[in-house]
Amino acid sequence: MSLTPISKIAVQIQTQPGWEGVRDWGLIVQAWATTVSPAILDRSQPRSISRGILTIATNSSSLAHQLTFGRKALCQKLNTQLIAPISDLRFIAVGYSNQQISPTATEDRSIPIDSGSIVICSHCDCRAREGELLRWGVCQFCAMDLGILGGKP
Fold first, then answer.
1. Whole-angstrom Cα distance, residue 77 to residue 88?
2. In the structure, how many helices (H) and strands (E) does the chain have?
């Protein structure tokens, strides 16, 4: 019995019916990385796509505002690299994180979960308090669903 490389297995899985969304999202993330400058890439990331509108989170409202002015040109550049074209771009100044958050709880009980500003949960793309993400890595509801947090919120 020979071992199959994980990259070959991943390609086989992504070509199966039902996995188009995963494959398309990977193309979107790659296209964004090659379309924008490294300075913008460090300060922004694709977050979701709905009805052909791609939402990009930025680390500042001024960057979101600046990118909004060039969204048509960015959209055209992205569409040259995508299978399913996007119709528009939406830029938001919440939900940006330059670190990968893993859904594990921290033991730091000094972080109040209702502290901080409103941000977007990296797991469900819903609004959450910054303190929830600092404590559990996800919003309170995702923490309960993932078994990180027991009981009711």
1. 12
2. 7, 5
* Amino acid in the structure at residue 43: R
Q: Would the pTM of this model clear 0.85, i.e. be above it? A: no
**Per the structure block, which two tokens stand in for 122?**
């990296």
Hunting for tokens 């119709």 — which residue is that?
Answer: 87
Radius of gyration of the chain (CA): 18
User: What pLDDT, in 10s, does the model give residues 36-71?
Assistant: 888 888 888 888 888 888 899 888 888 888 888 888
Tens of pLDDT, residue by residue over 7-44, are: 888 777 767 776 655 567 778 888 999 998 888 888 88
End-to-end CA distance of the chain: 49
The helix/strand/coil state of 84 is coil
**How buried is residue 146: exposed, middle or buried, by Cβ count under 10 Å (0-12/13-18/19+)?**
middle
Judge contact between 43 and 92, C-beta under 8 A: no
